[in-house]
Amino acid sequence: MPKPKKPGRPKLPKGEAKGGFVVVRFNADDLKKINGAAKAKSQTVSGWVRSTLLATIGD
């Protein structure tokens, strides 16, 4: 008898999963600016924050 399928998304291959997360809070005005900047680059907020931070630290 086959095992029942687990709920949720399948695990990502090794090396593709993100290593951790950072929780940051912004005030309403800053969040509007961040959302606008991400939208202007056609990115998610997470993607925009990640790419902006990595560009800032030179990665």
TL;DR?
The chain is built from two helices and no strands. The protein is mainly α and 59 residues long.
Secondary structure layout:
Elements: H1 28-40, H2 45-57
Structural descriptors:
single chain, 59 residues, mainly alpha, elongated
Question: Describe it for me?
Answer:
- With 59 residues, this protein is mainly alpha-helical.
- The protein has a domain at 28-57.
- It has two helices and no strands.
- It has helices spanning 28-40, 45-57.
- Helix 1 (28-40) packs across helix 2.
- The chain is elongated and about 55 Å long.
- The model has no long low-confidence stretch (mean pLDDT 91).
Q: How many whole angstroms does the radius of gyration measure?
A: 17 Å
**Helical amount among residues, as a percent range?**
40-55%
Shape: elongated
Output the helix-strand order: HH
Q: On the 0-100 scale, what is the average pLDDT?
A: 91
Q: pLDDT under 50 segments (min length 5)?
A: none
Structural class: mainly alpha
- Write down how many β-strands occur, each being a DSSP E stretch of 2 or more residues: 0
Give the percentage of residues in beta strands: under 5%
